[in-house]
Design goal:
Blueprint lengths: L1 H31 L7 H16 L4 H13 L3 H14 L4 H14 L2 H14 L4 H11 L11 H17 L4 H11 L2
Amino acid sequence: MAKAVALLFWCTLLIAQSGEARKHFLNGVGLYGEHDDSGDALREAQQEFAAALRLAPTYAAPRAYQGLIALEENRDAEARIAFQEALAWDRNCAEALVGLARLSQRKGTTRETLTLQRQAVAAAPRNALARRELASTLTNENNQNLPPTPAMWQEAIESWRVLITIDRNDRDAHYDLARAYRK
């Protein structure tokens, strides 16, 4: 009986921590998306992701975002480790797949980039980060190695539609969708 009570207490504590960890994660995502020249938002986002990981040590998404921050600071090796850890905890972590896609993009391997981005969208179809990254890569007209085809534009249109479904006020998605229809 004592073991059952202890297990119930532990599960209750874990559930409470998970909610708190998610709160820190979402705060971090909001800060990560801010555009500031000082870098303060990224530092604060890093603190939120670290707090989420203290509460839930194998929470893949905050670890992947730590990798995305490392990428923004040109610490590619550290970023790769973060993405690999996140994927070890959750093999379908869309944020980690997006991070690996960004690393691939830096190397100029567009097909690998698209494969990873498509994996991210397949793993989490309503993940705005994955959808936005995929649509952007598919329609990058400056990419000489893989210029957008009509099928790629259609795939991007589907991503922008999903983004608008997620957030009807997503101005960038509305703009990009309108741009695609003009093609």
